[in-house]
Amino acid sequence: MKRRGQARRRAEIAGGQPETDPEFNHEVHSVTEYRVHPDLRMGAVHLTVRDLGRSLAFYRDLLGLRASADDSGRVTLRAGEEPLVVMTGRPDAPIPPRRSTGLYHFAILIAHD
Prior knowledge:
The protein is of the alpha+beta class and 113 residues long. The protein has helices spanning 2-14, 52-62; strands spanning 19-21, 26-28, 45-49, 66-69, 74-78, 83-89.
């Protein structure tokens, strides 16, 4: 029953009507019906990392992103003018339990000339 409510809510947010999937007997919503405003832009991904030096080496040295630090210990990584990743180092950051909700990956597409 909870899934039906979630599917209906997603459909309402997307501005469409949910359909019923007969195989699973729950409502689904077609993503193709949802449109975002063309001026919408994604902001930077904010990460809390346990080892800031190791993470910085990966993004800066391996991927080639430019890094700048601020007074609070945050590091902002860019490929152009827009910030892509903002990292905060916190050695005591808890490790979430396996299968817990959270961000597990993100993608950065960098155009090459």
